[in-house]
Amino acid sequence: MLGDGFRTIGVAMVVMAIGALTACGAGPADDGSMTTIETVSTHETSRLDWEKSWESAFSRAKSEGKPVLVSFEAEWCVWCKKLDSTTYRDTAVMSLIADSMVPLTLDVDGAGEALSDQHGVESLPTVLVFSPTGEEVGRINGYLPPGQFVAAMQEILQTS
Questions:
Q1: N or C terminus of the chain with fewer C-beta within 10 Å?
Q2: How far is CA 28 from the centre of its chain?
Q3: Exposed, middle or buried, 99 (CB in 10 Å: 0-12/13-18/19+)?
Q4: What are the backbone dihedrals phi and psi of residue 138, each rounded to the nearest 5 degrees, phi first?
Q5: Poorest-pLDDT segment among 24-38, 54-68, 116-130
Q6: What order of strands is seen across the sheet that includes strand 68-73?
Q7: How many Cα atoms occupy the beta-carbon half-sphere of 48 within 13 Å?
Q8: What is the pTM of this model?
Q9: Rounded to whole angstroms, how far apart are CA atoms 38 and 84?
Q10: Pairwise CA distance, residues 24 & 20, whole Å
Q11: Taking residues 8-26, what's their average pLDDT?
């Protein structure tokens, strides 16, 4: 009898662990392996000049003639934190974004909720790229490590 209780607890713990690992709805976009993830606050120590509102990002984009990179995220999203702690902190990624785009981060549980619905964001993280006039020109669903992120962004920028 006592063994049944421990087995039930063990099964419950496995189910909770699987739920925690898939909480964002999109795992890694690279090789599918799981990695240890450092928890950090979104963009607090990033050296990129992240805009905080749709209006300010597009105003800046129009004046600078650059596309807008919109990173849809959430505090509870493990892969969003991974994107922030690795990809957005990579020097090649930061250079590409700073030189070529206006970055905007939106929390889907806050100011970005309506915009994420409007643009069909179904999993996190999702990165959209818009022309300065607001036309979507590219999309990345899920986490990408720095090298793959740079390659994807360069392709988006070349076709826009």
A1: N
A2: 11
A3: exposed
A4: -170, 160
A5: 24-38
A6: 102-107, 68-73, 126-130, 136-141
A7: 29
A8: 0.71
A9: 10
A10: 8
A11: 44
Can you list the alpha helix ranges (DSSP code H) found in the chain?
Answer: 2-21, 54-64, 78-85, 91-100, 113-118, 146-159
Choose, from 68, 69, 80, 93, the residue flagged as catalytic. Answer: 80
Q: Say if CB 67 and CB 160 are below 8 A apart.
A: yes
Could you confirm whether 24 is annotated as catalytic? no
24, 70, 77, 127: which is the annotated catalytic residue?
A: 77
| 61, two tokens | 């984009």
Domains and CATH numbers, the chain: 3-159 (3.40.30.10)
User: Which residues are CB-contacts of 22 (< 8 A; sequence separation ≥ 6)?
Assistant: none
